[in-house]
Amino acid sequence: MDAQVVEAPFDWQEQYAISQAHRVGHLVFTSGQAAIAPDGTVVGAGDLRAQIEQTMTNLAAVLEAAGSSLERVFKVTIYVTDMAGFPDIVDMRRRWFKAPWPSDTIVQVAALGLPELLVEIEAVATVDEA
């Protein structure tokens, strides 16, 4: 079974030499999504809630491009630069996901790919096999 690259709706991924997602069979694996606007600028520097909103908007767009959706996510890995933001992460999960909740791992890291980033989220979701 071959992995198929998902054509994501952003222009900036070439700048970082990444694919936003791959489809393998009935699964889609996303790259870590962050608070990067479609034009490549960071959204909400210093504001975790604003960054979560942009990150989840990006995640939804990538999943849609893959033929999936947030409703089909069953696993997320969340990277934060400060675990003090955990209550905001829980609020995000309640707002963007529905029960049964996706399995989750949350990890505090020293830094993310760009110094202004506070959160990055990657997901695995189901998709109808083409």
Automatic annotation (TrEMBL):
Protein name per its UniProtKB record: 2-iminobutanoate/2-iminopropanoate deaminase
Domain of life the protein comes from: Bacteria
Keyword terms of this UniProt record: Hydrolase
InterPro entries the record matches: RutC-like_sf (IPR035959), YjgF/YER057c/UK114 (IPR006175)
Recorded coiled-coil stretches: none
CC terms in the record's Gene Ontology section: cytosol
Keyword flag DNA-binding: no
EC annotation from Swiss-Prot or TrEMBL: 3.5.99.10
Gene Ontology molecular function: 2-iminobutanoate/2-iminopropanoate deaminase
Enzyme class: hydrolase
